């Protein structure tokens, strides 16, 4: 779709941006970087690792795309890999800070309304992602003594030779 009309979700996110200078090429080519059925919700221009580009929040991940002279640079942050995200507002601009896989990444020089909206939406998406993931119950390990009385446990330890009959008597008296 390079040179053609933008997808409706990208167009809507683009129209909500307050500042697009330096990221128009990335906006035009954004659809090339998306997976099948992925929907863009928020966009913000900013600087990541020394280059101006585009932060895009989708229904699946946060990505930063930059078309540089040496080629396309893309950093992907899937929701399940993000442990924390925060918006830090400065005097004129702000920064998006993302912690993923133990690494801190910063997108700086972000317009305040765009960055704040993107991070708020990211927090909501992360909360949805975590609430839809059901915790898998862990089965008890083989050989556990769940449901065994203390006295039966002591007898088992005595029978295995872990404690002596005298120790069994002392411990049983304390119980």
TrEMBL record:
InterPro entries: YokE-like_PH. Residues 34-122 form the YokE-like PH domain. Pfam families: bPH_3. It comes from the Bacteria. This is PH domain-containing protein.
